[in-house]
User: Fold this.
Amino acid sequence: MAVVGGALATVMLVGVIVARAGSGDTGPDGNTSASVAGPSASSPSATGPSTPAAPNASIDEAQDAAIKVVGRTGEVVAAGFISRRELIEMFTTRSFGPTFADETGRAIDAMLIELGSREVDLADVVVREQPITSTASATSDGVQVRVWSVLIIAAPGTGPGRQVWRTVKLDMVQHDGVWLVDGWASSPGPTPSPPAEGVVDSAESVAVPLSWDPVGAS
Assistant:
């Protein structure tokens, strides 16, 4: 259980980027989130005057795009080094993508090394993040989206599957009509309490539904 718990904590670091010092943003859980990367060279604020607030239709599109990105955490974790960078480039801006890929890669590699050192078959490890709710608001640069989700990891042979709830904040900017991630931060919680006498299933049992198709996947 300690192995999987440590691995899950490592996966939580996926996308935690340190850039804008002293932002002190607070998530809906009341916790101070990790710093969000400042606007990249591809965002409007880096290339010219601030743009007008996005219309509601654009906010909805940006929100949908951000939710889908958070839901791809398991896919990012499972990908190889080269394919992971290519996958990340699909939903991030050109300037932000390399930073996101480097930090994410380091976190995932640390998790895989930890599990591998305990003779866990890495091919059997399943990671899935499921967005639960989200909110979005227009900014001068685009749209900021907050997604509340539950992250689950199952490593058969290491005890029960594990879960963590977190809030992910994404800065979304539009490029050629496509909404891309230009900043990302995550903070733990808010976390619901489990049933006092709830049954905890093995990682093998949890891995079965985790292998099913994600709800809402296109």
